[in-house]
Automatic annotation (TrEMBL), chain A:
Pfam families: ABC_cobalt (PF09819). Signal peptide: none annotated. This is Thiamine ABC transporter permease. It comes from the Bacteria. Keywords: Membrane, Transmembrane, Transmembrane helix. The chain crosses the membrane at residues 12-32, 52-68, 73-90, 123-145.
TrEMBL record, chain B:
InterPro entries: ABC/ECF_trnsptr_transmembrane (IPR003339). The keyword Iron does not apply. It holds the Pfam family CbiQ. This is Energy-coupling factor transporter transmembrane protein EcfT. The chain crosses the membrane at residues 12-33, 40-57, 63-84, 115-135, 236-262. The keyword Membrane applies. It is a multi-pass membrane protein. It is found in: Membrane. It comes from the Bacteria. CDD domains: EcfT (cd16914). It comes from Paenibacillus faecis. Keywords: Membrane, Transmembrane, Transmembrane helix.
TrEMBL record, chain C:
Residues 1-22, 277-325 are annotated as: Disordered. It is a peripheral membrane protein. Keywords: ATP-binding, Cell membrane, Membrane, Nucleotide-binding, Translocase, Transport. This is ABC transporter ATP-binding protein. Residues 26-254, 332-573 form the ABC transporter domain. Pfam families: ABC_tran. Gene3D superfamilies: P-loop containing nucleotide triphosphate hydrolases. It is found in: Cell membrane.
Length: 201, 267, 582
């Protein structure tokens, strides 16, 4: 009997993994683009209220990872979501793509710390914070944020971290669960040894 | 939609290789990121806004509108530093707000930096169609085809997702039912939109991937190209242009200083 | 390219005891989707000879498409599914045409898409353009230039473009996975004509539900009939198979020649106000319960004389109006009604009325304005002119959610893609969703939900996620969700599209039931048979203009259907007399 070679042997991302990652991330990017452009019409000057929804930027990385569960997709997702800004000819295009690399890496590192085997909301929340830290690094050179009044620095990045946990963590987790319930994720997850064994029934 | 957003004429910038432009834009990004002298920053902003008018290929009034929106970019990026930045020479204080001389100039510098990056970014995105970018990245920058084609295929699928979003909105309007209020209702509403869009997108992307692979796409390389992406004299021209723009900004910053601050961080 | 050489079992073909070289073969195939209890295939052996033109037929879910993917090698090389086999022969060069015209392309332009295949095969650049023109000509898609956005092509043209791109693979075997299922009738015809043009010297392996066109063209020389769970029931030349397996074809609700005529005869008989036997059709019923419908089967059964006469419809209407004219109050009236998209009028109805008990088929070519009509009626597009629903004025020019809700209180809407209207995580929640907004007691709600579950053949599936249902079940659930509210008007947007015979008929039966309870049915459809024989009235939308084509044969008073108000002892007798000759 010829048994198929299991997907475990096929390392790396398949075309379908990449395509699903990119499309889902672009969709998230589009939604975010329109949401933020409406939102951005009233810039909250005195209070950094936009930080409270900043975590939405990092949802692509965590959501796609929770759906596909493979190494590398979190980083790719973040870059793809930012690519939308290039597509739409936004002022922030190039800048956001470069930011997204660090943000994606932040999330990716957290998932890697858990050996890509933990798909819980808490780990997703930590990955969101990872992205937030990733976004802080260029901010230091770009916005000299280290020269903010200390309370402001903490307020700004505290809000960002909390929003990352809520959006990129728990919201992403809830959405991934809801999508899982539709059964569509079986398309993109590898076949397990148990499934192959079920052929002997 | 296409009419308004398509460039009205093609410039040197359009003809240059996207990979060269991307590389140039990234270098310019880092240059701005690590520019700490306000005068140099100011002239970078000025020079690249001028370049945007000249090379974007769009009508003057359209670019003017875009450039006016830079005011918003300037305000939103500079205000926090101006109002809440550290500093000794206090100008004005009101509650938590402390405007100091240091934080004020730092804010101006950040605002100029944002405007520069916005102009540079737009110069790139307005002159580079996405399909062309990925074609070039694949051919000239060794981006594996499976990544390039994933982007190109997804971009093709995006309008369908948009259509579906509209259908879903109609369906929810007919069915009504926003029973939950507050954050829980919020999450419920997001879920109502996200689940059909995400699951349909996953299915679509998967189907397209399978269809592509069934057409002998191996995603690794070793392809021929119908539209070869090559380097031309326009690339030399653009490289010179960008280099010239930076030199001009540097020169103007040195000869016609406005702020005369050497390094904004140690101000 | 040539399939996946590396994975070919060595000398697989040589071992086969059968004569000749097979185009594809698999022995002792076992295949099961992850997490499912039942096998798709259990020890199936299947072989296709070179040059054969083969049609795989079977009920939805019998694994036909999966078999195509196994025979081509797509499973498991491209799609990871638990499976195994003892022997397999893959075609040396093959191409697969899929169902959905929109998910086979990766590039925005025709030339780029065709170039994609040529680039994959490393064809030198100079040869590309001539090859593209050559294949486009073969599939009858002659474009003025090659650099045309794929988005501007019709669905039927896209499908022919997909076929052209597959021809660039120089396939020896063509796999066709329901290529005409999502096309309108002209598109269906064209794609099969194109297939016939290129079929020579190739092996064809076809999966398709709607087979009128391909049989008309005598495209296939063998039909293999599969039953549930991937069992091969029988095979043979088309005429022979359709003759000797008629019972199975009916039992599994598979499209086959004559299925419509049989169903329509049964339907007309069943839904007469009285139930005389119109000879012949009783033995094999075309109208049978789809999967899981047993418990509620009686609601689909012919309503007897008594039931028919006491239907609410009869009570609502005044008896004694002139025959042939709609009676009672119209539930929807359009006078000089216009719907707009981006400020431009896209649909105009000079005068049209809908009465309780109407079954109106809305027909017309794609893009003529059928969806615009539905959207403007629902208040989702701005409109002007006269629009009355159940006596209330519904005309407005500004879009407001309040207005949509006001319409939705009178009109139920069934979307073309069921998934886009689902809001629940479970089948029962889905049905209960709208009820909970309007019905007071939760006991009442659960009673109505249970009733609907039985009636729509969804009993036992309460806890299932709506997305995890079969295509037919999804469709029935979407109708259930709209019908449970018992609105006077029900709009359905191509509800039978892509459905197999048994589910198509189930939907029509359900609509007829609702109609008899007094609802007006407005169904957008491409199906001529529905428009001509099932509906009582036909509307046509052409170039943005709605025309009322009047009553259909069935709707005319002598058929005794559209005008149940005349159903009295005399009226019924007269109708019966006419019926036999119909």
């Amino acid at each position: 009997m010829k048994q198929q070679e299991n997907a475990v042997l096929k390392k790396g991302l398949k075309l379908s993994d990449i395509l699903v990652t990119v499309l889902v991330s672009l969709v998230i990017g589009v939604v975010y683009h329109f949401w933020s452009s409406v939102y951005g019409l009233v810039p909250p000057v005195f209070f950094q209220a936009d930080e409270l929804v900043y975590g939405m930027w990092f949802i692509a990385a965590t959501l796609v990872f929770l759906l596909i569960r493979k190494p590398g997709v979190a980083l790719l997702a973040e870059v793809a979501a930012a690519h939308v800004e290039i597509l739409f000819g936004s002022e922030w295009g190039i800048q956001l793509v470069l930011y997204s690399v660090l943000q994606g890496l932040g999330a990716e590192l957290v998932f890697a710390l858990f050996r890509y085997r933990n798909y819980s909301g808490t780990v997703a929340a930590m990955a969101g914070v990872g992205s937030a830290i990733g976004s802080l690094i260029p901010d230091i050179y770009y916005g000299y944020v280290a020269d903010y009044e200390t309370w402001m620095l903490f307020a700004k990045y505290g809000m960002r971290a909390i929003s990352s946990m809520l959006f990129a963590g728990y919201l992403a987790y809830a959405l991934a669960k809801a999508v899982e319930a539709t059964g569509v994720t079986s398309l993109i997850r590898p076949v397990t040894a148990k499934d192959v064994a079920a052929l002997d029934d | 939609m296409k009419g308004v957003f398509a460039p009205s004429y093609r410039t040197w910038m359009h003809r240059a290789n996207p990979v060269l432009k991307l590389g140039g834009s990234i270098l310019l990004f880092f240059l701005a990121l690590f520019t700490h002298r306000p005068d140099f920053m100011l002239y970078q902003a000025v020079v690249f806004i001028l370049l945007l008018f000249w090379q974007s290929g769009y009508a003057f009034w359209k670019i003017l509108l875009v450039v006016l929106s830079f005011i918003l970019v300037f305000i939103s990026s500079s205000s926090t530093m101006m109002l809440f930045g550290k500093g000794e020479a206090l100008w004005w204080e009101w509650g938590l707000i402390r405007i100091t001389e240091e934080s004020f100039y730092r804010g101006i510098h950040i605002g100029l930096k944002s405007v520069t990056l916005a102009a540079e970014g737009l110069l790139f995105v307005l002159t580079t169609p996405s399909v062309g970018l990925f074609y070039a990245l694949m051919q000239n920058a060794k981006l594996p085809p499976k990544f390039a084609y994933s982007f190109m295929a997804s971009i093709r699928l995006l309008p369908m997702v948009w259509e579906e979003l509209l259908i879903r909105r109609n369906a929810l309007r007919i069915r009504g039912g926003q029973r939950l209020r507050g954050p829980r209702g919020w999450v419920a509403a997001i879920r109502l939109y996200a689940v059909p869009l995400l699951s349909q997108s996953i299915r679509r992307a998967h189907r397209v991937a399978v269809a592509m692979e069934s057409k002998a796409f191996d995603g690794k390389g070793g392809r021929t190209y119908y539209y070869p992406s090559v380097f031309t004299k326009f690339d030399l021209l653009i490289a010179a242009l960008l280099l010239g723009a930076v030199s001009l900004a540097l020169l103007l910053g040195g000869t016609l200083p406005v702020f005369s601050i050497a390094d904004i961080r140690n101000y | 390219m040539g399939g996946f050489h590396a994975d070919l079992p060595p000398a697989g073909a040589a071992k086969t005891p059968m004569s000749g070289e097979p185009a594809g073969e698999v022995r002792d195939l076992r295949l099961k989707f992850p997490g499912e209890d039942t096998f798709v295939f259990k020890d199936l052996t299947f072989r296709v000879e070179r040059g054969e033109k083969l049609l795989l037929l079977g009920p939805s879910g019998s694994g036909k498409s999966t078999l195509l993917q196994v025979l081509s090698g797509m499973i498991p090389e491209l799609v990871d599914v638990p499976m195994r086999y003892s022997e397999r022969v893959l075609p040396s060069a093959w191409g697969m045409l899929f169902q959905d015209p929109d998910t086979q392309f990766c590039m925005p332009y025709v030339d780029e898409e065709l170039a994609f295949v040529l680039e994959n095969r490393r064809v030198p650049r100079e040869e590309m353009a001539p090859r593209m023109r050559d294949v486009l000509k073969k599939v009858g898609l002659e474009l003025k230039e090659l650099h045309v956005p794929i988005g501007t092509l019709s669905q039927g043209m896209k499908q022919r473009l997909a076929l052209a791109s597959i021809l660039l693979m120089e396939p020896e075997v063509l796999f066709l996975d329901e290529p005409s299922a999502l096309l309108d009738p002209p598109g269906r015809k064209q794609i099969w004509q194109a297939v016939r043009e290129v079929a020579e010297a190739r092996t064809l392996i076809i999966v398709e539900h709607r087979i009128e066109e391909l049989l008309e063209l005598e495209l296939v020389d063998r039909v293999a009939l599969f039953g549930p769970e991937g069992r091969l029931l029988g095979q043979g030349p088309p005429e022979e198979l359709f003759r000797s397996y008629r019972k199975e074809l009916l039992a599994y609700g598979i499209w086959h020649p004559g299925v419509w005529d049989g169903y329509v005869a049964d339907f007309l008989e069943a839904y007469q106000e009285t139930g005389p036997t119109v000879g012949g059709q009783k033995a094999d019923s075309y109208r049978q319960a789809p999967e899981g419908r047993e418990q509620g089967a009686q609601v689909c059964k012919p309503a007897g004389k008594k039931h028919g006469q006491t239907a609410p419809l009869t009570e609502r209407k005044s008896v004694g109006e002139p025959a042939g004219q709609p009676v009672g109050q119209p539930v929807m009236v359009l006078t000089d009604f216009r719907g707009f998209r981006q400020g431009r009028p896209v649909i105009h109805a000079a005068q049209a009325s809908v009465y309780p008990g109407d079954f109106i088929a809305v027909t017309g070519p794609n893009g003529a304005g059928k969806s615009s009509l539905l959207l403007s009626l629902m208040g989702l597009l701005p409109s002007e002119g006269g629009y009355r629903l159940s006596g209330q004025d519904m005309s407005w020019s500004k879009l407001r959610n309040k207005m949509v809700r006001a319409v939705a209180r009178e009109v139920g809407f069934v979307f073309q893609n069921p998934e886009f209207q689902f809001v629940g995580n479970r089948v029962d929640q889905e049905i209960a969703f709208s009820l909970l907004e309007e019905t007071a007691g939760s006991e009442e709600v659960s009673r109505l939900v249970d009733e609907a579950l039985i009636r729509f053949g969804l009993a036992g599936l309460e806890a299932r996620h709506p997305y995890q249902l079969s295509l037919g079940q999804k469709r029935r659930l979407s109708v259930a969700g709209a019908a449970v509210l018992k609105r006077p008007v029900l709009l359905l947007d191509e509800p039978t599209f892509g459905q197999d015979a048994v589910n198509t008929f189930a939907i029509l039966d359900l609509c007829e039931e609702l109609r008899r309870e007094g609802a007006a049915i407005l169904m957008v459809t491409h199906e001529e048979k529905i428009a001509e024989t099932i509906a009582t009235r036909k509307w046509e939308v052409r170039d943005g203009v709605l025309t009322d084509c009047g009553l259909t044969e069935r709707g005319r008073p002598r058929a005794g259907i559209a005008n149940p108000a005349t159903v009295g002892v005399e009226g019924t007798a007269a109708a019966n007399g006419e019926r036999v000759s119909v």
